[in-house]
Design goal:
about 25% helix, Immunoglobulin-like, single chain, about 220 residues, 4 helices, alpha+beta, 3-stranded mixed β-sheet, 8-stranded mixed β-sheet
Length: about 220
Amino acid sequence: MYYRSKLIKLTFLLLCSFMMVFPVIGQQVSLRGIVVDAETWRGLAHANLVLVRQSKVAVGNSQGAFSFMLPSDVRPTDTLRVSFMGYESGVYQVGDFKKDTNLQIRLQKTEKVLNAAVVLGYPVKDLMKKFLENMSNTFYPDPLEFDVFYQEVIEEDGKYVGFARAAGYMHYAGYDPSFFEKIKTLGMGMFTTIHFIRFKNQIIMCFIVLVEAGEMQ
């Protein structure tokens, strides 16, 4: 009788643990689909999708297709902004979409007349000075995460010979003002921004952008 009672208690605890875990897993939402021109239905290559509250970003592939795994703490009222250069951004709520379905997001072209620009020669040293003075306005201050989805049909000699698909993750550490203040003090040297691409929690690629400050005097 004692062992039977212990077995019942153990079974009850296991059931409770599963009931606690399943809702957490169920909260994850996967959005898949394509971003297209509202008139031509042509896919918009590398359109951006931004989950505003979490600063989480996904980028579509060359055909406009995307796969966006939203975090477990996402809310139905969270804002999802879809943008592409030359088009009006689409602003939606996560609750507007059904999860695990092929979505079709249509963007309208913008009709804006840009002012004429005059191109003049500019000394490199003066340009670098202005760049350093306005550093905080040109770099996004907060860290960003990117889910990158890539899909391509491989063509050779006018025939389709293969199909490639990949998913990755990119992290941007954000702007560090103290690092660039040291450069302005020294007046010369190098400064860098570092970007990582990770796949299944493993770093598979690292981008290091080097910019030479040069002499500031």
